[in-house]
Amino acid sequence: MTAMQNRRILLVDDMVAIHDAFRKVLVPQQTESIELDAVEAMLFGDDPAAAAVPTFELDSAYQGQEGLEKVQAALLAGRPYALAFVDMRMPPGWDGVQTIEELWRADPRLQIVICTAFSDLSWDEVLSRLEVRDRLLILKKPFDPVEISQLASALTVKWQTTQDAGLKLAQLEEAVENRTAELATANDDLRREITERTRNEKELRLAASVFHNTLDGVMIIDPDRRMVSVNQAFAALTGYSLEECLGQPEAVLRSDRQSIEFYQEIWAAVEQAGRWQGELWNKRRDGEDFLAWMNLVKVSDSDGRVERYVGVFHDITEMRSKEERIRHLAFHDTLTGLPNRTLLQDRLEHAITAAQRTGEPLGLMFIDLDRFKSINDSLGHEAGDALLKEVAQRLANSLRKSDTVARLGGDEFVVLLPRVGMPHNYGLVAQKLIEALSKPIILDGNAMQVSASIGIACFPDDGIDTMALMKNADAAMYAAKVGGRGTYRFFQPAMTSLAVERLNFEMQLRGAVANGELELFYQPKISLDSGVACGVEALVRWHHPTLGMIPPVEFIPVAEATGIIDALGDWVLEEACRQLRAWRLAGLGTIKIAVNVSARQLQQSDLPEYIASLAQKYEISACDLEVELTESVLMANPEEISGVLSRLRGIGVLVAIDDFGTGYSSLAYLRRLPIDVLKIDRSFVMNADRDESDGQVVKLILGLGSALQLAIVAEGVETEAQAAFLKSCGCTTAQGYLYARPQPAAQLETWLRKHAGPAAASS
């Protein structure tokens, strides 16, 4: 049955006069209608025939946005418009083309008539944007009332006819669907009637479809739970031949890792729910266990009787091993295998909760190796890493299984000691650890003597939460270092000497900037393709009057915490620019220098202008400078930093992310921020040629750099094997002890004359 015809029309035009004109044509005045009805009643009686001239329900909108709102409201009310007349020019809002696009986006069924005399677009452009559709007509001004009326009548009838056709089509599809269901039911009945005669054919189809189209092991089990058929994948996974399996109970695959009750629960689930899926250990023919993901399904006939059970499984032993490896890496230090900060934090929180419940004390030790930095610098990172591994092993061997020893990073270790008894017992444990570490360690044929400073904090006397215990144990450790190193100290609230020492260190650092005690060392970057230097990284050193050479790892954190980094960072930038000019005047040509910048420097809005002024002062190009920042600095405030980085790039300065992969980066920000270079952290490079996980990380970073069109620099390259691996993976630039250690400018100048590229050599 045809629904009542839709006479709803929307007029979108910014001129009130147009609306009045359309209303006169499409919606006759009520008074005129009454007078005509009266005349008809006088001429034809009380029941005149209905007028043949159609009337319409006309709504007005004076801007495209208002028209869209009316269309959306009409759809929500279930009374959509059949037709819309749309003007092409409606300042200041949308033009006609955009209005039509938005109306069709809201109601694709809407018929559209373009009403215009002028357009800002050619008709080819209009049709290109809107396409030639059967729902689009053009009505040029001035308008003919008859044409308007005819268009309204024809298009509203067309709209209704289309809806009626759609309704009939839906009814027809429903009828087809119902008939199809009836035929399917009849087909099922027919299939049941011939099941017995076609059982062999069915088994062949099952074998063809299930067995030969999957790499998973498949076994068909009869109601007595004996295997009646298996596929080649089953044989490959279990080691049983096809012939050996026939007639064997499915229990032949059972592993002793699971109890009889476990298998009983599986079969109970299959009988009750019709299926079971999950992990279980299976046993191969040779007795080896393997972890499988199993789907076990019950197949019943039309009467509910069990015909077969079908088991489909695949080996997930390797996948689970990788998952456990990833999980282990997330909570353990990659170098030593010890728990990392995250796992330590979790265990400490649980230990505090247990101690609060039982009332037993709890001890936390901070351990820092004495002068590890000098060992690392003198023997190289590989020797330093070997030392850390040996230290970790000795610590673990000296403690109970219930204790936790974790590595926070560098040469910092933490020991968690629950249920040790009286607090003085912690001192006994600390002395035991110091003695274990003091035994000589053989590195590269050299016997190294290692000492450690240990700070001890006890729960609840020295803190009742993780933060307080960690902080106070750290403070006690610094007191142990002040006390002569190679010893331990319990935390004391009156440990003010450490605060005084740190204050003195801060004042000395402030004087170092002003007194010229700082010096830049430079480490070359090497092109793996040509083997020549393609740039250097500037690394600041502090020549302390009494303590000697102090590496940046010891004073940069203090500088950042106290604000000294502002003056120090400005000095480093200016010194790098001055050295660039000096090398150029010395005939070394153009050398690119990378300078590390801190979060505070990036937060200064005038950093790009400061660098530009230095470039002008020393008559160098800003393009020869590169700024390096860490992931933590980048992600601290990416939106604010983005503007500074964009302005740096605007003056030609390259932007590099240092130690990439050790922090947290959002790939979305890496794609959006103006970044030019990623530097692979040495922790991944050092074992990349021997460890599959580290190798994969390096390859992933190289692939990421390629996808984002970023240059890649590998840090910490110390062996030819590492360099060869990096080059084979497509890495083009490397930096590390294999090529050169950081060295003063004068010493590097000699090195550069031997290793610089053609550009520098010919200058």
From TrEMBL:
<dbReference type="InterPro" id="IPR001789">
    <property type="entry name" value="Sig_transdc_resp-reg_receiver"/>
</dbReference>
<dbReference type="InterPro" id="IPR001610">
    <property type="entry name" value="PAC"/>
</dbReference>
<dbReference type="InterPro" id="IPR035965">
    <property type="entry name" value="PAS-like_dom_sf"/>
</dbReference>
<dbReference type="Pfam" id="PF00563">
    <property type="entry name" value="EAL"/>
</dbReference>
<feature type="domain" description="EAL">
    <location>
        <begin position="502"/>
        <end position="756"/>
    </location>
</feature>
<dbReference type="Pfam" id="PF00989">
    <property type="entry name" value="PAS"/>
</dbReference>
<dbReference type="InterPro" id="IPR001633">
    <property type="entry name" value="EAL_dom"/>
</dbReference>
<dbReference type="Pfam" id="PF00990">
    <property type="entry name" value="GGDEF"/>
</dbReference>
<dbReference type="InterPro" id="IPR011006">
    <property type="entry name" value="CheY-like_superfamily"/>
</dbReference>
<dbReference type="InterPro" id="IPR052155">
    <property type="entry name" value="Biofilm_reg_signaling"/>
</dbReference>
<dbReference type="InterPro" id="IPR013767">
    <property type="entry name" value="PAS_fold"/>
</dbReference>
<dbReference type="InterPro" id="IPR000700">
    <property type="entry name" value="PAS-assoc_C"/>
</dbReference>
<feature type="domain" description="GGDEF">
    <location>
        <begin position="360"/>
        <end position="493"/>
    </location>
</feature>
<dbReference type="InterPro" id="IPR000160">
    <property type="entry name" value="GGDEF_dom"/>
</dbReference>
<dbReference type="InterPro" id="IPR029787">
    <property type="entry name" value="Nucleotide_cyclase"/>
</dbReference>
<dbReference type="InterPro" id="IPR035919">
    <property type="entry name" value="EAL_sf"/>
</dbReference>
<protein>
    <submittedName>
        <fullName>EAL domain-containing protein</fullName>
    </submittedName>
</protein>
<feature type="modified residue" description="4-aspartylphosphate">
    <location>
        <position position="87"/>
    </location>
</feature>
<keyword id="KW-0597">Phosphoprotein</keyword>
<feature type="domain" description="PAS">
    <location>
        <begin position="200"/>
        <end position="248"/>
    </location>
</feature>
<feature type="domain" description="Response regulatory">
    <location>
        <begin position="8"/>
        <end position="156"/>
    </location>
</feature>
<dbReference type="InterPro" id="IPR043128">
    <property type="entry name" value="Rev_trsase/Diguanyl_cyclase"/>
</dbReference>
<feature type="domain" description="PAC">
    <location>
        <begin position="276"/>
        <end position="328"/>
    </location>
</feature>
<dbReference type="InterPro" id="IPR000014">
    <property type="entry name" value="PAS"/>
</dbReference>
